[in-house]
Amino acid sequence: MTFSNNSNADVLIVGAGPTGLTLACELLRHGITPRIIDKALAPTDKSKAFGIHPRTLELLENMGIVGTFLNQGNACNAFDMYDCGEPLASVKFDNIESKYPFVLMLAQSDTEKILHEHLLSYGIEVERNAELNRIKQTEDGVVATIKNQYGSREDFNFKYLVGCDGAHSITRHQLNFEFKGAPYPNYWLLADCNIDWKYPTFHLSIFIHPTGVTAYFPLREDRGRLMFELENAPIDEEMALPVIDDVHRLMEERGIQHNGISEPNWLAYFKLHHRMVDKYSEGRVFLCGDAAHIHSPMGGQGMNTGMQDAYNLAWKLALVLKGKSQERLLDSYNTERHRIGKEVVGLTDTATKMATIHNPVISVIRNKMVGILSKITPVQEKIVSTLTQLEFHYKDSPIVDERWFESKEVEGYVPHGHDLKAGERFKDYSLKSVDGSSPTELYNLLSGSEHELLIFTGAEPEDMEIQELSKIVESVKEYGSLIETHLLIGSKETPDGLPEVPSTWIDTGHNMHKDFGAAKASIYLIRPDGYIAFRNQPASASDLLEYLVTIFN
Questions:
Q1: Homologous superfamily, domain 401-548
Q2: CATH number attached to the domain at 11-50+107-179+278-357
Q3: Strands (E), 139-236
């Protein structure tokens, strides 16, 4: 028997793709040692999913490994559309409100390698050739039957089990969850190969043509993926695999320019599907990633959505397993991530159907609309923020809340438009120490695994407000290491009597105060996954404590 030494772990992760590896690494960062198995003999050597979006890069920064990804990947900074070879629309990523205003192109095989090395740094290895065979839930745990490489089966007890085992998930089948959806009608030809490209090198590209749409995803300057829609192609499982000559023929037929295509390492026919489960969990068993949702690769959403599923679930499992939160906290995983999954499936379904319209009259109308709308700045910004998953939020979640009363405008203080709400993500900000010697960034302060309390002084805090801020600092001490406190000064000069907080910073240019709407003394509690859990203005210790008891024991 070759099962791992951590066979008594509280969490079993089934599947060691990007989603499962992210979950394992995050649980370890939060102090929980999982067990992770995969039925494959070795990691994938295929490029598969290779677009990493800004929001995913932000979570990788929080995990401490974004630098490795940036060093190995290439930045893609625009999305172009062509109609029969002629430019139709171009959407730039320059104005993305993130320190990563691009989509990072990196083969999934490399993504898995980086995540696996990160996992090894915690002293945990993936168990290969180990397959989940059966699940039985009990009142206080899960009994999982695991089959090893020799065909032997053994039962193991876990508190929780998470299926990250892909579109053909054994975990999902064990739960008897219906995978609702359908395949798209047409087959596609996929070709990963060397390409001497005549179009902008690091732009995602879509080529519309009466015989079918073609998508191009750049991986490196000289290599990328082509996906050809094959309308009404009589393809079946008995057909021979495609060859490079098929790629050359399709490129010529559709007027897509290049100086050469060679050295394919992956050629295949396949069908696109859109499917989703009705819920992401049952009892103590959860689904993440492709086990819960699959969709068209238009926009490269799949791997990113799965990794963010894992990121959302990890901190909640950790708090419950440590006895710091009640099990009801885990119910929010389905509430928050199922809605996101549904949005992603709907978004990619709409994009795929729009791109693959073949009716000549409707095609002309679509092309005219795309050409016009893509030139409107707000439309561009909406497309990009949705594509890059920065717009997704948890404002309707049962575990986020706010008690917020807009203050009257303070003289000389003009808030920046929309102030951030509970459940939303926020961008990074520059801060400086009180003596000006140690500048930092907000994300650096939020790199731990705890909740982070941001206390804003407001523009001109009165004595009563300062006293309440001091009360807040004292009141959260009972939560110990679960909450880290940061004081952000937004006034022109440091007010007297502020509470002593080791992490005290000056909000440079008051930009954070203006974006967060903190004209008066305010508080924002940030979840471990970087979303706003609670906001409160005017700042009130009693309001904060009433919220905290809904999260912590």
A1: Glutaredoxin (3.40.30.10)
A2: 3.50.50.60
A3: 141-147, 153-158, 160-163, 180-197, 203-208, 214-220, 223-230
Whether 273 and 183 have beta carbons less than 8 Å apart is answered as yes
Q: In what order do the strands lie in the sheet with 153-158?
A: 131-138, 141-147, 153-158
pLDDT in tens, the chain (553 residues): 334 456 679 999 999 999 999 999 999 999 999 999 999 999 988 888 889 999 999 999 999 999 999 999 999 999 899 988 888 888 888 888 899 999 999 999 999 999 999 999 999 999 999 999 999 999 999 999 999 888 899 999 999 999 999 999 999 999 999 999 988 888 899 999 999 999 998 899 999 999 899 999 998 888 999 999 997 766 665 667 899 999 999 999 999 999 999 999 889 998 888 899 999 999 999 999 999 999 887 767 889 999 999 999 999 999 999 999 999 999 999 999 999 999 888 878 777 777 777 777 777 776 777 766 666 666 666 667 777 778 899 999 999 999 998 766 566 566 655 678 999 999 999 999 998 778 999 999 998 899 999 999 998 899 999 999 999 999 999 999 999 999 999 988 889 999 999 999 999 888 899 899 998 999 999 999 999 999 999 999 999 999 999 999 8
- Sequence ranges of the domains in the chain: 11-50+107-179+278-357, 181-273, 401-548
Q: 């009363």: which residue's tokens?
A: 405
* DSSP-based three-state secondary structure for 160: strand
11-14: strand order across its sheet = 127-128, 35-38, 11-14, 160-163, 285-287, 281-282
User: Residue 271 has which token pair?
Assistant: 């069908």
Encoded tokens for 275: 């499917």
Q: Among residues 101, 99, 119, 100, which one has the least CA distance to residue 18?
A: 119
Q: The pTM is what?
A: 0.92
Q: Give one word for 288, left, alpha or beta, with left for phi > 0 and alpha for psi -120 to 50.
A: beta
DSSP structure string for 83-146: ETTEEEEEEE-TT-SSS--SEEE--HHHHHHHHHHHHHHTT---EET-EEEEEEEETTEEEEEE
Q: How is residue 389 written in tokens? A: 């998953």
Backbone dihedral region of 347: left (phi > 0), alpha (psi from -120 to 50 degrees) or beta?
A: alpha
Residue among 169, 142, 132 at smallest CA distance from 283: 142
Going by CATH, does the domain composed of 181-273 fall within 3.30.70.100? no
Other CB atoms within 10 Å distance of the CB of residue 102: 22
Quick one: which of 429, 334, 399 has its CA closest to 99? 429
Distances (CA, A) of 548 to 4, 96, 480: 38, 33, 13
Q: Which tokens go with 68? A: 């490795």
